[in-house]
Specification:
The protein has two domains: about 5-100, no CATH class; about 105-250, NAD(P)-binding Rossmann-like Domain (Rossmann fold). α3 (about 115-120) crosses α8 (about 235-250) and α5 packs across α6 (about 200-210). α5 (about 175-185) links the parallel β9 (about 165-170) and β10. The radius of gyration is 22 Å and the shape is elongated. The protein has eight helices and eleven strands. The protein is about 35% helix and about 20% strand. The protein has helices at about 5-20, 55-70, 115-120, 155-160, 175-185, 200-210, 215-220, 235-250, and strands at about 25-30, 40-45, 50, 80-85, 90-100, 105, 125-130, 145-150, 165-170, 190-195, 225. The two termini are about 30 Å apart. Strands 8-7-6-9-10-11 form a six-stranded parallel β-sheet, with helices on both faces. A five-stranded antiparallel β-sheet has the order 3-2-1-5-4, with helices on both faces. The chain has about 270 residues and is α/β, with parallel strands linked by helices. Pfam families: XdhC_C, XdhC_CoxI. InterPro entries: MoCofactor_Util/Proc, XdhC_CoxI, XdhC_Rossmann_dom. This is Xanthine/CO dehydrogenase XdhC/CoxF family maturation factor.
Length: about 270
């Protein structure tokens, strides 16, 4: 690859880092073929065309497919992976993955949402608070969070939920909570946490069914209600820890149990 194209590739990667867009930078580390040069790179953005060349069209295709598969998962990790070429050559490719910050979207600006938003920001989430009440959804109460003043009739216009958005429903208002559940489960959100006991959730789902709203099994599998891990939380701050611990466990594919009960020695996610 020419020096100019190499520069353009690297600038595209840096732009993704600055703008918080998802992309993969694949770098050839080792190869059993003398025709493939270590250090060759291939840039694969989540949106847009790949750029670069690893030295073999088949290798480019395989690496692009692997990168797309990784970007399609919720929380892909950077790692070195072996790749086998059709001719039998073995190569080692490092997949460097950049993801935008995950978003935590809270429907409800009550007092118990305040520590959730605060802790979520400290954990690195982009945090959004959706509520129709200007006296509650304020920058003073939720510093650092994006505020969307909107009722259920304007969510379609004002609220965008992506596939890396975790939703929390905590309006403490049955009608708004029902509407938020309906909105969130019909969105790409992978996780929809609903505050309150199981009996309240069942009443809301029954009411929605009477309105003609029925959810598929896949949609209901994304709803976590009652939301949070069972840590005996009582205060708003403790409840916030319980909720966010579950969100982190879900994002990482963990169950959220006691570490001492794990069978393997490592306490970290394997790379």
């Amino acid at each position: 690859m020419s020096g100019q194209r190499e520069k353009e590739l690297y600038e595209s990667w840096l732009r993704c880092l600055r703008e918080g867009r998802a992309a993969v930078l694949a770098r050839l580390l080792e190869s059993s073929s003398p025709d493939l040069q270590a250090g060759a790179r291939l840039f694969i953005p989540e949106e847009g065309e790949p750029m670069g060349d690893l030295g073999d069209p088949s290798l480019n295709r395989l690496v692009i497919e692997r990168a797309r598969e990784k970007l399609a998962t919720l929380y892909p990790r950077s790692e070195t992976c072996p790749v086998s070429l059709p001719g039998g050559e073995q190569v080692q490719v490092f997949f460097d993955i950049n993801l935008p910050p995950f978003e935590l979207m809270i429907f409800g600006a009550g007092h118990d949402a305040v520590p959730v938003a605060k802790f979520a920001l400290e954990l690195g989430f982009r945090t959004t608070v959706v509520d129709p009440r200007p006296a509650y959804a304020t920058g003073e109460r939720f510093p650092g969070s994006r505020i969307i003043l909107a009722d259920r009739h304007s969510w379609e216009e004002k609220v965008t939920v992506g596939r890396r958005t975790f939703v929390l429903v905590m309006n403490h208002h049955l009608e708004r909570d029902r509407a938020a559940i309906r909105f969130a489960l019909n969105s790409p959100a992978p996780y929809v946490g609903v505050l309150g006991p199981r009996s309240r959730r069942e009443r809301m789902l029954e009411a929605l069914e009477k309105e003609g709203v029925r959810f598929e099994k896949e949609q209901l599998s994304r709803m976590y209600s009652p939301v949070g891990l069972d840590i005996g939380a009582e205060t708003p701050e403790e409840v916030a820890v319980s909720i966010l611990a579950e969100v982190l466990a879900f994002r990482s594919g963990h169950k959220g149990g006691f570490l001492r009960e794990r069978s393997r020695d490592s306490i970290h996610q394997p790379l």
